[in-house]
Design brief:
This protein is α+β, with helices and mostly antiparallel strands.
């Protein structure tokens, strides 16, 4: 077996515009993984697999160098309606507007939400601002009968659940 064939055996291949196959680069591999995990998360009958959600979030947000605040919209049976990145910030903070979260929830007819954001610093420890934001969003969304099931903080490969910590 030639050296080229052997090196291709361990590579993920992609088809280019001419129809030829070539080894995928790192960004293409990550994009493919995100698509697979998003499809898997969306295809869940209900969100009865926290592991699928966590895997998706690790790939989606774990390596970002800036903060992102996202929402996973759920229907009345906790089936995923849509994952939406709502706000983008800097390396250490992002501005989140409860009014906009409420508007998006009503537009998608969400019954419940998972709030998500990342900490590029690598620490999953929620700040006091994270805790206050969670309570403000929970209160605002309760006025329109949308439940907040959890607020997840992603830091690299680690994910903290504020609900599991009793902070919801």
């Amino acid at each position: 077996m030639s050296q080229l064939t052997h090196s291709l055996d361990s590579s993920l291949l992609v088809r280019d515009v001419t129809g030829d196959y070539r080894p995928a680069n790192a960004d293409e591999v990550l994009q493919a993984a995100q698509r697979v995990l998003a499809r898997r998360m969306h295809d869940c009958e209900a969100l009865n697999s926290p592991q699928v959600v966590r895997d998706f979030l690790r790939v989606k947000l774990g390596a970002l160098e800036h903060e992102v605040f996202a929402v996973i919209h759920l229907d009345a049976q906790n089936r995923v309606i849509e994952y939406v990145e709502m706000f983008r910030g800097t390396v250490s903070q992002t501005s989140v507007y409860p009014r906009e979260v409420v508007k998006e929830s009503l537009a998608r007819n969400s019954a419940a939400l998972l709030l998500v954001h990342n900490h590029p610093s690598g620490s999953t420890q929620p700040s006091r601002a994270d805790e206050m934001l969670t309570q403000a969003l929970k209160s605002a969304l309760a006025l329109v009968d949308v439940r907040v099931l959890d607020h997840l903080i992603v830091a690299g490969g680690d994910i903290l659940s504020m609900a599991e910590r009793g902070l919801l």
